[in-house]
Amino acid sequence: MKCYLCGKTFFERRNIHTLFKEKLVFRCQSCLKKYPTYITVQVIPKDNGLIYITSLFKEENNFNLLAYNNEIKKWFLETINSMNEADIIIWIDEVSDELIPHLDLLDNDIYLLTKTLKYFS
């Protein structure tokens, strides 16, 4: 397989029990250790619910987010299982201060997945 971050070719070690099972890996072991995710959740109250902002990293980067498919998939599955039918999921690269008042106009809870951490007061 080819690492989505550094571009190196790497091989996933298999044994007789995992030989015929599909396991998708998008990062090599070196990049897995060097560039870990730092998942944080912020909750902002609004008029008719809450805004849950989940960020993947502490600092700005130019990573190919396809390398983090497993983490994103885990977040989506957890969110879908815990949310109500009328809640909204939004995936956005950067959350700005101008976006929050617009989200306040929407009803129900909003789940945002963003790339980098930004603190709101």
Structural commentary:
By secondary structure, this protein is of the alpha/beta class. It folds into two domains: 36 residues, no CATH class; 80 residues, no CATH class. Helices cover 21% and strands 22% of the residues. It contains three helices and four strands. Strands 1-2-4-3 form a four-stranded mixed sheet, with no helix packed on it. The longest helix has 14 residues. It is elongated, with a radius of gyration of 17 Å. The model has no long low-confidence stretch (mean pLDDT 86).
Task: Put the structure in a nutshell.
This protein is of the alpha/beta class. It is built from 3 helices and 4 strands; from the N terminus they run αββαβαβ. The longest helix is centred in the middle third of the chain and has 14 residues, at 69-82.
Question: How do the strands and helices of this protein lay out in sequence?
Answer:
Layout: H1 29-34, E1 40-46, E2 49-57, H2 69-82, E3 88-91, H3 99-104, E4 110-116
Parallel strand pairs: 2-4, 3-4
Antiparallel strand pairs: 1-2
